[in-house]
Design goal:
Strand content: 5-15%
Number of strands: 8
Order of helices and strands: HEHEHEHEHHEHEHEHHEHH
Shape: globular
Number of domains: 2
CATH class of the largest domain: Alpha Beta
Distance between the termini: 84 Å
Structural class: alpha/beta
CATH architecture of the largest domain: 3-Layer(aba) Sandwich
CATH topology of the largest domain: Rossmann fold
Number of helices: 12
Length: about 290
């Protein structure tokens, strides 16, 4: 009897092991192997649930909050080559169409360095799709893209005439968003006319005389530091600007530059926020055929 029971046990064990070998193995994520120098790409990777793949980020990665605890390797233009090499990354990802000299040097050393265009809303969708495939998050990518497109389609009817909007990056700056940029597209989705579209280049400079001549209905300051918000009061009180329509009607607003300058998966949050500033009455206005 003891011999028979032992034989049965062995047979059951063999059958179990054979059956187990037929089951699909649960694919585990590789260890952290990505150095991501673009905040927008960091946001996408987190949105896809693949943040465990990130080994390090740039100094500008601030969202989501969990990204703030990741190791830093400098910026996209001035990354630390030595620090990046210490991570032995499988890939280095950045935004744009060209590589900075340090990234070119890393490429010459044999590392995989790639720049993904991140200038428009279409680029956001393309990058979500690309990263979803590479990080084994195809389903999450398609769900994210589908959800964002649905939100775009659900935007309320926009009233006419649309107000003119001037975006100013930084309180002391003279930089705005030109045609074909993510920031310009966001303003259009939120029901405004971007004055920077009439200037040359994607990130044109403007002069005080140009502001006075254009006389925008709304001025949006895209700010990176909370203390800059106080400086907006000085702008409002400056006698040079007292004749501007935006000053007289109190339509000077501030937005974090993380929303208006980073083309990532939070862009519909930015649209809704600007919609409440640019077309505040649209929430009660149903779509019209």
């Amino acid at each position: 009897m003891g011999y028979l029971n032992t034989w049965k046990t062995i047979c059951l064990l063999v059958a179990y092991l054979a059956a187990s070998s037929l089951l699909p193995a649960q694919a585990a994520d590789p260890p952290p192997d990505l150095v991501v120098l673009s905040p927008s790409l960091v946001e996408i990777i987190f949105a896809l649930g693949a943040e465990s793949r990130i080994a390090a980020v740039s100094r500008y990665a601030e969202w989501p909050k969990a990204a703030q605890s990741l190791p830093r390797v400098g910026g996209g233009l001035d990354p630390s080559i030595e620090t990046i090499l210490a991570f032995n990354p499988g890939s280095i990802l950045t935004s744009g169409t060209t590589l900075s000299p340090p990234l070119q040097q890393l490429q010459r050393l044999g590392l995989h360095v790639e720049a993904l265009p991140s200038d428009t809303i279409d680029d956001i969708f393309e990058n979500i799709d690309i990263l979803g495939q590479r990080l084994n998050r195809e389903q999450a990518a398609q769900q994210l893209i589908g959800g964002l497109r649905q939100e775009m389609e659900a935007l309320p009817h926009l009233r006419s005439p649309r107000p003119t909007v001037l975006v100013i990056f930084g309180i002391e700056g003279n930089l705005t968003a030109g045609a074909g940029t993510f920031s310009s597209e966001i303003i259009q989705l939120a029901g405004g006319i971007n004055l920077g579209d009439s200037l040359d280049g994607p990130w044109p400079l403007f002069s005080p005389e140009m502001i006075l001549q254009a006389d925008p209905d709304i001025i949006l300051f895209s700010l990176s530091h909370p203390e800059e918000i106080r400086a907006v009061d000085h702008f409002k009180q400056n006698s040079k600007w007292k004749g501007l329509t935006a000053v007289q009607t109190g339509r000077i607003h501030t937005v974090p530059d993380s929303l208006l300058a980073i083309p990532g998966p939070r862009f519909m949050e930015t649209v809704r926020r600007l919609l409440s500033l640019i077309q505040p009455s649209t929430h009660a206005s149903p779509p019209q055929d």
